[in-house]
Prior knowledge:
The protein is of the alpha/beta class. It contains eight helices and seven strands. It has one domain (3-198): HUPs (Rossmann fold, 3-Layer(aba) Sandwich). The protein has helices spanning 15-27, 44-59, 61-64, 78-81, 107-122, 144-158, 173-195, 218-237, and strands spanning 3-10, 28-37, 67-74, 126-128, 163-165, 207-208, 211-212.
Amino acid sequence: MRQQTTALVLYSGGQDSCVCLADALARYENVETIGFLYGQAHAIEMQTRLVFLQKYRETFCDQAKRLGPDHVLDISGYGEIAQSTLTVQAADTRRKDGLPATYVPGRNLIFLIAAAALADRRGAEVLVGGMCETDYSGYPDCRRETMDAVETTIRLGMGLDLRIDTPLMALTKAQTWELTERLGGQKLVDLIVTDSHSCYAGDREHLHKWGYGCGQCDACKLRAKGYESWANQQEDGA
Ligand code: ZN
C-alpha cells in the first residue's frame, strides 16, 4: 500500500538517489525531486540527472504519472565556503581529520534544510535521501543519528513535522542493487547502470558492467565492488 502523501526526493542523479526515486514511487502516492547546484566541479551530474529522469518517465510510464516536477536550487556560492575536491578541481588528498577529501562540510545539512523549505511550499510530508552508513563513506552527515537530529531541528526551527526517510541507510551496496532489481527488474538495473552517475572524476567515457566511470576514484570503486558482490551472489544462487 502506498502512503497517500507527497514525498520529496533529494535527487542528484547518482546511483543511490536514482534507486531512492524508484523506491519512493513504490511507497508514496506523489513524488517530486530536488537537485542542487552547490558549486560542484563537474557539471556532468546536473545533465545526467535530467537524462535519467526522462528515460525513467519513458520506461515506467504508469509510475511516471505520479512523478511531479523536478526542482533545482542554485546554492553554488556554498561550494566556495565549503571546499572539497568535489567543488575545487584538486588532487585527491586526505583531510587532517581523516575524512575523505571529497567530503563537502555540511552539504547534506544545507540540502535538507533547503528541501524542507520546498517541502513546506509543496505540501510534502516526507524527504527521501540516499544516505547510507553501511558501506560508510565516512561522511558524518550520512548517519541516521544526524538525520534524526535534523528532523528535530526542522520541527523546532521551522515548525514542520517532516520525516526524513532513508531507505538505503542499512543496506550494503550489493543490497542496493538487489533492491533495484526488486523495484524495477532488469529494466531498472540497466537504466541505473547506463544513466546514473557516481564517478567523482566526471568520467562518462568508460562503460563498465556497473556503469560509466574512471574506475579509480572512491565512488567508482565502491560502485564496482557493490555490483560485483551482487553479481556473484546471483551466480551462487543460480
Ligand atoms: Zn570515478
